[in-house]
Amino acid sequence: MDEATRMMHLAAGFAYGKDATCGTKVDYKSEESADKAAAAMSAKGSKQLEAYPCFWCHGWHIGRAMTTEEQERFRWHGT
Questions:
Q1: What's the pLDDT band for 78 if we cut at 50, 70, 90?
Q2: In the chain, what are the domain boundaries?
Q3: The Cα angle at residue 56 between residues 22 and 75, in degrees rounded to 5
Q4: What pLDDT digit, counting tens, does each position of 31-49 carry?
Q5: Contact present, 53 and 35 (Cβ < 8 Å)
Q6: For a designed S-S bond to 74, which of 3, 6, 12, 15 qualifies (C-beta 3.0 to 4.6 A apart)?
Q7: Phi/psi-derived region of residue 17, left when phi > 0, alpha when psi is between -120 and 50, beta in every other case
Q8: Contact 32/75 with Cβ under 8 angstroms?
Q9: Separation between Cα atoms, residue 7 and residue 75, nearest integer Å
């Protein structure tokens, strides 16, 4: 995941709060393990899932893919 996307997910996690973005979710210790789990779960269901870094626990979780509107809202435009 590139730095801008990582920062976008962290900003979204902060905005949505700990319960929504961390709460009782599985804490994957690496991006790679979360990506593999998200791909497997997406293949089994109808929703597109993605791995994201957690602002709160600093691990990785799996959740629904962000909408275009959310991506625009939380996109990091760092220097």
A1: low
A2: 3-74
A3: 90
A4: 999 999 999 999 998 789 9
A5: no
A6: 12
A7: left
A8: no
A9: 7
Amino acid at 67: T
Contact criterion met (CB below 8 Å) for 72 and 42:
no
Cβ atoms of residues 74 and 8 within 8 Å: yes
Can you give the pLDDT at residue 30?
96
**What is the CA angle 11-51-8, rounded to 5?**
20
For residue 76, what pLDDT is reported? 75
The residue written with tokens 């997406």 in the block is 42
pLDDT bucket at 66, cuts 50 / 70 / 90: very high
Measured distance between the N- and C-terminal CA atoms of the chain, rounded to whole angstroms? 18
DSSP structural state of residue 74: H
